[in-house]
């Protein structure tokens, strides 16, 4: 009952004219950036951070959240009609959705994607509503040692597990941790890594780093390497509505995709890529129409799209209750909280209940708005694909430059923006993930603070991290997260070698 009362008070906040307008702007902008290839929610939120510095925190965060799950909605349009995923999480949708479009069933593919996203997003938000208070109760039992161990888990999973190369992921993480140390030490007041530059005494501005890595770096990379060849857009043919058979084949994949997506969104570095691929594999195994997979099976669109959107709701769970980002976009939203002097975590539910519950309530409203925007207006979104890419990239760079300069009206910030942007470009060129840099930059100082507090409590005894039950459990999970995938690959390699050794010549 207490949760429901808090949610109803959240609706009162979310339904105010200002917040309703900002939520509408967020989901509309999110859908647009989801449609545009190479322009994701992380880049868009990073661009808007400087522009929203003077906004009310609740309204700004409602808009950022709308951009996040709106992009999850919009990415399917590009995947289905252009066979170009607008977001990495919609790669699976492109596999089956584009084949459906080629067969003249683009309408059904877009419909099952939109309705599945609505169903999954709504269920995910319900789970977020009722599970968050329990997560907060658990988080309130955390001390400095437990928080430090959880951040170590986040560091390891973000950098070493999901990327193509653990070494590259860890290199990016340590780069982020290093630049997070720049500035004055919080306890001694000594300058660290400032190289005698006065502008660095306050540290690197998170907003400038985020805009540089995502807006400048990503844009330079996309403009350089992904701007070749003509795009072929599949034409909309037939009805946009789903047939009775389509509904029958879609509703179970929607529910199964939701069940996969939400938990993976909650875990550190869960993201949406793993549950979407798992959902696709599950539907292929369970479907009575397995022969259609690879040729345009509607289950291959319905399940992954549901998993995609459910994971977006799940991502907000660790962000709001523990202050831990599990995706690049969540890391930038965390930077937005810090821009307003707020630190997400269990105490924020007590100190800023209007903000937290207003944000959660806005997601219910946003899902309804998105369903109304996506199906009837699909023709409008398709026209966005006609925007010349050079104009698009030039516009992004102009907004990035204006935003970074507007923070402190400093030319140093501009030089820093493009220096970090070039670094981001090089990282993307050599397949070094950029998300760990931002996670290291944001969580690095916090983890250092918790580490020092834990040692102060234990009088310098490092065993506190393994003698506290919760901390020891989290560190054990961290070790397993690193070892198990490597051991599994080794076993598979040995099995493959054994089969090859015993096979007849």
From TrEMBL:
Pfam families noted in UniProt: TctA
Record bears the keyword Transmembrane helix: yes
Domain DUF112, first and last residues per copy: 20-438
Transmembrane stretches, start-end: 6-27, 34-55, 61-82, 108-135, 147-164, 169-186, 206-226, 316-336, 356-378, 390-407, 462-484
Keywords: Membrane, Transmembrane, Transmembrane helix
Record's keyword annotation contains Membrane: yes
Top-rank lineage group of the source organism: Bacteria
Name this protein carries in UniProt: Putative tricarboxylic transport membrane protein
Organism: Aromatoleum tolulyticum
